[in-house]
Amino acid sequence: MSPMACSVLSPRGMVGRVLDQRPVALLAFGFAWTIVVATGLGVLWHYQTAAGIAGAPPTRWPRDSRIVPANDRPTLVVALHPHCPCSRASMEELDRLMARVHDRVSAHVLFIKPRELSDDWMHTDLWRRAAAIRGVAVLGDVDGIEAERFNAATSGQTMLYAADGRLLFSGGITSSRGHAGDNAGRSAIVALLTSRIAATRSTPVFGCSLLGAHAPHARDGSTRAETRDVL
């Protein structure tokens, strides 16, 4: 038999070689799949923990706000995009907050709405969820003018003002995007309303941008709101 003939594998030999290679192929596939899953989880984690733009609310209550602040208690304002899925968690946290301090604060939730769209665009499940919270007044904000007065840039931005008009807190009341649970923002607001002492006065805001195609910009290019010293 020639050397060439000796190199030809029998069918049984070919099957054996394939079987010998199978563990290697499975190992390679498993390694590749692990990389894909790890990459996906990394992207998801980055998204969930990536805060939105931190708006800089005026340090005094905006002079031109159409919200009438309480003169006997602090006033809370939350700016929301009605189609932001992340803000459902913010409403869960607001509900928990108001269950504890509804008699200590005047709370308002603003829903931005472009002028050219109907009210139905604004009256989402998120609107109805906010309206169902005890002690909360829900307001439509045409062209986001009111949110602009508070320099709110991300859905879920929450601001607490004292009865004398001083800014006490600004930030988010969730710990990440779409995640309800204990968080520094809610704890700070509760502390300010009960003991007047809080570990922090600002927290990151996790939500959708209020500065997109369906959100306004300052008419004169300014991002500062006029304020008043005495309410």
Could you list some keywords that capture this structure?
alpha/beta, globular, single chain, five-stranded mixed beta sheet, Glutaredoxin, 231 residues, 5 strands, 7 helices, disordered C terminus
Give an account of the 3D structure:
β1, α3 and β2 form a beta-alpha-beta unit. α3 runs parallel beside α7. A five-stranded mixed beta sheet has the order 3-2-1-4-5. The relative contact order is 0.20. The N terminus and C terminus are likely disordered. By secondary structure, it is α/β, with parallel strands linked by helices. It has seven helices and five strands. It has two domains: 47 residues; 180 residues, Glutaredoxin.
Quick one: overall form? globular
Question: Given the structure, what is the number of helices?
Answer: 7
Query: Portion of residues in helices?
Result: 25-40%
What strand line-up does the widest sheet have? 3-2-1-4-5
Helices and strands, in order, run as HHEHEHHEHEEH
The CATH homologous superfamily of the largest domain is called Glutaredoxin
Low-pLDDT ranges: 1-8, 36-48, 215-231
CATH topology of the largest domain: Glutaredoxin
For the termini, the CA-CA separation is 107 Å
Q: Number of DSSP strands?
A: 5
Into which percentage range does the β-strand content fall? 5-15%
SSE class: alpha/beta
Q: What is the domain tally? A: 2
Mean pLDDT value: 81
Largest sheet: 5 strands, mixed
Level-1 CATH class name of the largest domain: Alpha Beta
Radius of gyration: 27 Å
The assigned CATH architecture of the largest domain is 3-Layer(aba) Sandwich
